[in-house]
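Quick start: what a row looks like.
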Amino acid sequence: MNDMSVLSRDPQDFLFFDTETRALPDLEDPRWGDVTQAGAARYGKSCKVVVFRYCIGNGPMRRWDLDDFSKTLKWREAPPDLLEHLARALKGETWFVAWNSFFDRHVCNGGMVRPSAGPALPVRVVLDAMAQATASNLPAKLEGASRAIGRSGKVELGKHLIALFAPADGGTPQSHPVEWEQYKGYADVDVEELRAVFLATRPLWRWEWEQFWTSETINDRGLPIDAHFVARAKVLADAYMTQVDERVVEYTHGVCWSVNQHVALANWVADGVAHLPEAADILVKKYEEDAEGDGLVAAALSLSRDRVERLIAYLERLDEKQGLTDDEFDVLQLLETRLYGASATPKKFGKMLPMLDGRYRLCGQYTFNGAQQTGRFSSRGAQVHNLTRAFVGMEDQAPGREAEAIEFISEMEIEE
């Protein structure tokens, strides 16, 4: 039976916190030091926390910072009120609250010296202000959520300061003392804003937090990945994309050079079918009044999948009736290349590799309350919700033939 109670009505039972980090030097894979490539779980083992900002309830902001990057923050040396709150949280009496807490939980467990063998912040100790904000139909970005409740948002210098101090070879408090003070102030604002959003939104019921903690447990467990297969599939995907782009150059006679040049390709196709009004109309995403008042003109073009499929069908019908000119045939081939070559799925192989942990598992792929209004999960990182289920050339085979497809790909020899 769902527990319709809230965790607590007392703000003092919630510690709001935010962290800033720095990548460790000499990593086995340099990509592990970039959270955008490695994901939070892998990055948490490849960084150190340099700024820990927190406030308890409506209390004042507290700073715990690493002013010497040659050292590491140790949980045993944390401020007394932080340790006291942690002790209560481990008993289930209080909680830590962060924005996108999967990141902060992992860097606190991996980027600081833990007090024991287990994680300093177990799953059930941490809440996510972002999950609560999206449940109230606020934006998933802290900046947008803050402004939605009438506050001023984040510090504009934030991205610049992160880029300065986060890399392993970046700035230090000694090399950039002014920016370091700005960085610490930036962290103050983030905590103030996430606290304001959390206290302004509907408290999730206990049963909702139970679902969230289950979700985070699944995220920590991760998805088992065949790293060898994925590495070879990446080689295939890279070779395939090279061939696709070569065909784009061939069919457009050098005007375009990549299947992902959305605007340039749309304009090239529009020029190629301008003499075919019905085909040209399929491309138009938006019309607007002509500047001279002579009627409507195309204001925006689109090569979305449905439009490309309709254009291909139109040109194939035209080919059956009267044949295509050489230029029209080039357009048809370009559209077919775009239809099958612009998929983002092959890129997922390369994206997975730096995100795998030591167990060859892909962690942190699901976002609780990722979609506003519906509350459904969304996917991040490798976007596993969007993985294709079809096998090229085996669409009509009986179920269970996937293993043969995998064996076939594994045995392929790729010429460099």
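That is the whole record. The chain has two domains: 11-223, 227-341. The chain has 15 helices and eleven strands.
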